[in-house]
Amino acid sequence: MGESMFVSLAFLMLCTMLQRVWSHGDQPLSKVAVHKATVSLLDLAYIKASPAILGQEGKTAEWITLEYSSPIPSIDDWIGVFSPANFSASTCPKENRRVYPPLLCSAPIKYQYANYSSPLYIVHGKGFLKLRLINQRSDFSFALFSGGLSNPKLVAVSNKIAFANPNAPVYPRLALGKSWNEMSVTWTSGYGISDAEPFVQWGPKGGDHMHSPAETLTFTSDSMCGSPARTVGWRDPGYIHTSHLKELWPNRLYEYKIGHKLNNGTFIWSGNYQFRAPPFPGQKSLQRVLIFGDMGKEEVDGSNEYNNFQHGSINTTLQLIQDLENIDVVFHIGDICYANGYLSQWDQFTAQVEPIASAVPYMVASGNHERDWPETGSFYENMDSGGECGVLAQTMFYTPASNRAKVWYSIDYGMFRFCIADTEHDWREGTEQYKFIEHCFASVDRQKQPWLIFLAHRVLGYSSCICYAEEGSFAEPMGRESLQKLWQKYKVDIAVYGHVHNYERTCPIYQNICTNEEKYHYKGTLKGTIHIVAGGGGSSLSTFTSLKTKWSIFKDYDYGFVKLTAFDHSNLLFEYKKSRDGKVYDSFNISRDYRDILACTMDSCPSMTMAS
């Protein structure tokens, strides 16, 4: 008992130390000291917003112009965007009868300094600013503050502006379903089930269309586990709808649009979209999969720049949009948008990825910034989710997991079998998740689906990040120890992780030893698993250790993503591309036959008998 307790305490202490190195700076909105806000309205100060009505042509995003003036301008004056428009204390719910809310009910959904596009603001006290707003189910107002972010004083409040239909269905995101011939469509709206009937109108391109109903979810601040998610970061999420389109024909092109039938019989429609149905398990066709982690979101108008740490996010998004015709599936393996308890940022993220997620399945995994919160069952006892404790991620994005709160699941896509783990829940031997991982590996028919891929957020395999190297683990503590015998036994080809914000590739490896001397053109049996870190989707980059490791083949301190291309059952191409230009900077290919998968390697086959 004493030894077991000592091991557990040592493990928790190590996890605590590791958490310190994942600090990327605070979420930008957390810099606004909402609780210190005071009213200092000035007669000669003003802020005006135009146009008053947005989205009159069905647009879900528009640029607006602000004009503002202050008689006592300062370099730290700033402008906050608030939605709903009424952010006064009178609308704030009290946490309890002894705690009174601050002047501001919630943090602004974005902000910018008054001199950002008007350098002479500090001289003349006048300025203008262009901001991009998305439809977020409510009206907007804009406030001019003095005193900086740490001691905000409200100087002026603008007129209100709004989208023509703030409740409109927006930001569809596709996901592969629980069956290979199923596609799920999730979207957000302001219509509850008592207001309208949600559905998807869909069918083969050029063919007959049908309606499929959608389930509707929402939640309240009581579902949040802590601050800021249930206090200043809280914002009504609206309603999240998911419809399941079934019995699809493999590789057929379908078109769809999302709609709501109002109680008065009228219909509210989205724009038109299309997707290609997935191939059936084992189907021989060109299959292209993109994988990355830790992308986050970034504002195209330059707002939220203060201590912003997701500098590569827009570049990654744009590269995927530009190459969308050559992408079949996207896996975003954790640390999705870094809302960190500021719920408005989930709308911003789904708007940012909509051109991708509305056209190809956008599959997600759970990361520390989605799930972790003390005493809520997460494997790591930290506060990285900002109080969200997984609720936002598992509601905003559909996954075919048997329990949406435990985000581990498998995907059969043509010649691929993907096994997606949830590193924020215990994966160690004997746990529920460990049994799932082994079953996912063991149940695939490698003759039909030769390419077996393991995906997870935290690095359970190998990484040269200085954060891991300083602890001597080169991965999450107990990761390899728990899972490497499964990777080896079931001959997992490639394992891909996020969490560490850079790119790295190992040799095929087992028990810290390279099992193949080749680096770029693998033929026959790998004899081990190739481990990839692909956490450079957009968040601040992670530093490599100066220590030299024999198993590390390629490292890159930059933003990027990886792409797997299966040409047939015997040939796979792996590519690493940078987000800045979309060019390939590392690659390898695997060529083999089915008998190479069957071949025994160390610890991959059961004991044999010579008995006849």
From TrEMBL:
Residues 528-587 form the Purple acid phosphatase C-terminal domain. Residues 47-165 form the Purple acid phosphatase Fn3-like domain. The gene is Vigan.10G052300. Its cofactor is Fe cation; Zn(2+). It is an enzyme of class 3 (hydrolase). Its EC number is 3.1.3.2. Belongs to the metallophosphoesterase superfamily. Purple acid phosphatase family. GO terms for molecular function: acid phosphatase activity; metal ion binding. Homodimer. It comes from the Eukaryota. The keyword S-adenosyl-L-methionine does not apply. Pfam families: fn3_PAP, Metallophos, Metallophos_C, Pur_ac_phosph_N. GO terms for cellular component: extracellular region. SUPFAM superfamilies: Metallo-dependent phosphatases (SSF56300), Purple acid phosphatase, N-terminal domain (SSF49363). It catalyses: a phosphate monoester + H2O = an alcohol + phosphate. This is Purple acid phosphatase. It is found in: Secreted. Keywords: Glycoprotein, Hydrolase, Secreted, Signal, Zinc.
